[in-house]
Fold this protein.
Amino acid sequence: MGKREIKALKFLSVKGPNVKIHFRDMRDCGLETGDRLKIRGFLETFPQEKHPERTGYYMLTEAGLDAWQQQAAR
């Protein structure tokens, strides 16, 4: 994982898994970083209400929390 992916997982882990975070409140997670985390199954995204083609919310998965805990233990 890259440094931005690790930072994004760290930020989301503070909020906990299965908690939706508005895209404006998200730190260190742009579109590409979000896509990489989503492909790994560490992150879920949800569309905006008014613009369904855009990401509105991010949510850490249980797998993402596990990955962060393993990374933090190093």
The first strand starts at residue 20 and ends at 22. The mean pLDDT is 92.
